[in-house]
Amino acid sequence: MLTIALYLYSLLHLLSSTAATTPPYTPTDYFLLNCGSSSKATSPDGRSWDGDATSKFWPSNIGTTSSPSTATEQDPSVTDIPFLTARIFTSKFTYTFPVSSGPKFIRLYFYPATYSNLDRSKSYFSVTAANYTLLTNFSAFLTVSALVPQQSSLVKEFILNVRDTQKLDITFNPSPNSYAFINGIEVVSIPNNFYMKGDLNPIPLVGSQQFFYIDDNTALETLYRLNVGGNDVSVNHDTGMYRTWQQDGQYIYGGAVGLVPHLEIPIRYTNETPNYTAPATVYTTARTMGRDPYVNLEYRLTWIFNVDSGFLYLARLHFCEFQPEVTKENERIFSVYMNNQTADQEVDVIHLSGGRGIPVFKDYVLSVPVVDGLRSKVDLWLAMHPNMNSKPMYADAILNGLEIFKLNQSDGSLAGPNPEYDMVPAQPAPYPKLPGKENSKTSSWLVVAVSGGVIGGVFLISVIGFVIFSRRRRVRDSGASVVKSSWVQFSISHTSKSTKTNAYRLISADISH
Length: 513
Hints:
Blueprint: H1 2-21, E1 30-34, E2 41-42, E3 48-51, H2 62-65, E4 66-70, H3 80-83, E5 85-89, E6 93-98, E7 102-110, E8 125-129, E9 132-138, H4 140-145, E10 154-162, E11 167-174, E12 180-182, E13 184-189, E14 203-204, E15 211-214, E16 220-227, H5 280-283, E17 287-288, H6 293-296, E18 301-308, E19 311-319, E20 334-338, E21 341-347, H7 349-353, E22 360-368, E23 377-386, E24 398-399, E25 401-407, E26 418-419, H8 452-471, E27 475-476, E28 504-506
Parallel strand pairs: 1-3
Antiparallel strand pairs: 1-13, 2-3, 4-5, 5-12, 6-11, 7-10, 7-13, 8-9, 8-11, 10-16, 14-15, 15-28, 16-25, 17-24, 18-23, 19-22, 19-25, 20-21, 20-23, 26-27
């Protein structure tokens, strides 16, 4: 009897351990291609990459249309796999991946180093996939040079749907007198009805009374994916889709950065928010406004993101109440603003989710029009402020996670302009790594807010500095100007021109660009 009991205990322990380490989602299609390489290799995150020189994903004339190359220099921050080698193209070249139908992540890895004595600043090219234009006249060199904080490589992530053709073509086409290159390609399937829900998910159009329905004719580009108030989340700690979640600190506006509470509690996923939506760590960390209600009522907790004008954007906000102080409805209610327009008048997370420790997300679509007929880089503002209309217990707001996506234009394009080289910013002081998590039964409030007087002074200085900085920025697009903005007084003027699209459906709305 004792032997049977020990056996059952061991079996249950094994099952529970397996369940804890098994990702919530297993992709049906998963490809990792190390371009310019002829052999298998393992990246530092433990994933196995196939060399494209021996793969079945390229055309038979590869020897005459491309060549492999190795970077002549390797930045210490850049991993060998997949960034050490590259595939160089001097004419149009297509990779073909055999895939099942349904939505896919496409991740393109770029390290703009010197390859085969080619001038890295002279590389311009376009990329298309499944009849969508992902990049046009793209310069990886200019794009990397403008990144803050400074980086030497980048990954461009896209989401698109593959029809019943059972194949995914990704085509690279160099601009005239130029060349194209790619270091790595990743293709990962996505659960159905996750980002593109169609009629299942009417999405509010910010600044109007209308709704969007994003169906599987839409292509998206991932611009930001943040673990708000928490540490970076690597691909191996995602939910099976190998997404990366970054800290949000660099995007906070001004000196009023709020608090970053953290408490390890069980997260109870639901049918509406399945367990692959975001890792549990996203929902057990957050950024709130602070403990002082008088200070909270005097400012908006604000993030700023650089985006391309002339597009629609999908913002997915992740919420979960995990602090023991908030357990019932009408205890914390707040408003959400995007570009100084009301996106949501009243958000009560407990009311939306059904209880503490239950995650929920809300989607919003925002139009960022072209300003004065010129396409440019502009700022997208996201802000939160307590709503006291129903007299909640706390004057506060909370955000756990954030994803921002660009939606394709009516011609199927996601391509934006390159940044100007003289737009490259000075390297700021690095943000410190957030303190490590502690297993605690009580709420761990990490106080990073300051007193009301100090907030006011820092905030005023930040506003002045931001306005000066905004006036100095330019982009590579026929001398286009940049929107000058502040959440204190924010407005957009533009000329109207109606466009039509079959990529997403707007109910009784006229979007102007």
